[in-house]
Specification:
With 304 residues, this protein is of the alpha+beta class. It is 19% helix and 27% strand.
């Protein structure tokens, strides 16, 4: 697969490995460096090294070899199904479950479970690694997720996501006390300039991101909030709340490394998902109850 880039004047002076990893956030900087070493990147028809600094009007051609995808096996894993028909299935995803196979996680994923449950009736638009998957939530985030059983449904839900017409409400516990009862965070999110495994508010290379929040309950050191997504960037709520100085409780990536409670990852739950049904045109809203660990934590906070 070839990708072409034309360097703008304001982008000149960046190292080519950094430039390319910022332009294509799906590819790591280390992989870009491997492509450069393998001479799979041409600048104005010539190979360059990783430390080459791009110039205005440079024409860059990147040849990305097709990935060899492992065969994904169906697995008999219990699913908490909120709703299912011939077009879609809504799952209440548990904590610790990866949505689709990736490096280091080729078994035990939601996709493995769906392949067994749906017996192959899943959309094929996102390929064999992500059949039926039109959006995802982090491994340690719980809650409602929609999966599409055919390409027509997939295209419909994908368009609703693109148009920001889907209702997505999340529930989180954050550090500190928010000043306002409700508000909106409108700040672009992109790959972190130093730590490529993280996202950050990135004015230069980020994509538009909007999160609406409102306070549900206040505690001594924490606040229970509802966050409604207008856009759906990677780690959006986690990054946006951390940017305000209120990282999610348990989030060691964007918040304190030490947590006062025994938690596995961030306290974040996808509680509500509302869509226009791809076949009937009817608005439907689905809710996933707070997981037990989240309810227990709220009880502890109310008691302090």
């Amino acid at each position: 697969m070839n990708q072409e880039y034309n360097v703008l004047a304001e982008e000149a002076g960046n190292r080519i490995d950094r430039y390319l990893s910022e332009r294509n956030q799906e590819i790591s900087r280390s992989y870009i460096q491997k492509l450069l070493k393998d001479e799979s990147v041409l600048v104005n028809g010539k190979t360059v090294k990783s430390n080459y600094k791009v110039c205005a009007e440079d024409k860059i051609l990147v040849n990305i070899p097709e990935a060899v995808e492992p065969e994904i096996e169906p697995e008999d894993i219990d699913l908490d199904i909120l709703y299912e028909d011939r077009d879609i299935i809504l799952i209440n995803k548990p904590k610790g479950m990866v949505v689709h196979p990736a490096a280091g996680h080729y078994t035990g994923t939601l996709v493995n479970a769906l392949m067994a449950h749906c017996r192959g009736d899943l959309s094929g638009i996102n390929g064999v690694m992500r059949p039926g998957i039109v959006h995802r939530i982090d491994m340690d985030t719980t809650g409602v997720l929609i999966v599409c059983k055919n390409d027509s449904s997939h295209n419909s839900i994908a368009k609703q996501l693109k148009d920001h017409s889907i209702t997505r409400k999340y529930y989180a516990i954050v550090h500190g006390s928010l000043k306002e009862e409700e508000g909106t965070i409108h700040a672009p999110i992109g790959r972190h300039p130093v730590d490529r495994k993280k996202m950050s508010v990135n004015e230069k290379n980020g994509r538009d991101a909007i999160t609406h929040y409102r306070v549900l309950e206040r505690f001594r050191q924490f606040t229970y909030v509802e966050c409604q997504l207008e856009t759906g960037r990677t780690h959006q709520i986690r990054v946006h709340m951390a940017s305000m100085g209120h990282p999610l409780l348990g989030d060691s990536v964007y918040g304190p490394s030490k947590c006062p409670y025994r938690l596995t990852g961030q306290t974040l739950h996808a509680g509500v998902l509302g869509i226009i049904h791809p076949a009937t045109g009817e608005y439907m809203e689905f809710q996933a109850p707070l997981p037990e660990y989240f309810e227990d934590l709220l009880r502890k906070l109310r008691a302090t």
